[in-house]
Amino acid sequence: MSSDLLKNKKILVMGVANKRSIAWGCAQAMAANGAEVIYTYQNERMKKSIKRLVDDEEHLIECDVASDESLQTAFTTIGERFGKIDGLVHAIAFAKKEELAGDIMNTSRAGYSLAQDISAYSLLAVAKYAQPLLNNPASIVTLTYFGSERAIPNYNIMGVAKAALEANVRYLARDMAKYGVRVNAISAGAVKTLAVTGVKGHGELLRMSEERTVDGKSVTTKEIGNTAAFLVSDLASGVVGDTIYVDKGVHLI
What we know:
253 residues; seven-stranded parallel β-sheet
């Protein structure tokens, strides 16, 4: 279904890895509702993946959120090419595979720091560099997961990082309000993405999640994307600092 909900809006989507990415579901929903979508990719290897989906160099910007220099360059380039933007989807997270298994007390100090840096701090960094480019009003949306609240098997340090991310959303929502920018999170249901496959026993996690949906069917990236499109639209002007569950009711059980 297409509409003009986001007509004349420019939305930046960060975190598309492949066609299964939740970020790609968000980008498709934005485009279907009339938005001009701009994409960032981490490095040349990831650029090859995203170019299979988006064959438009103008709308592809390199950005490694682990580097302030890369962030500064990326947002300077976005400003030069597109001017002001109306929304931003932050769908970026990372933890070492060995940290996503076993007992959480075996998490390494370096692994803990890395997961927090890429999965939680990056939202603050992105907001800082994006702020001068964001229109008034504008919207930032990030992606989280129920493992921030419950001890999901093997999710471990990523659950801790997602809890920090959700706290960041609340504080950012408070501080970005003076610029006319709303900040919210989507708590997405378990979907078979590249990120999920890094979790030990992810097949069992996906099966259990599907069984706990209200209709026995897993949420789709399209459904998650549609909610993101709503959150960056003017229809969501009253939604601030919140976490919206798009998981087909899994969090109810």
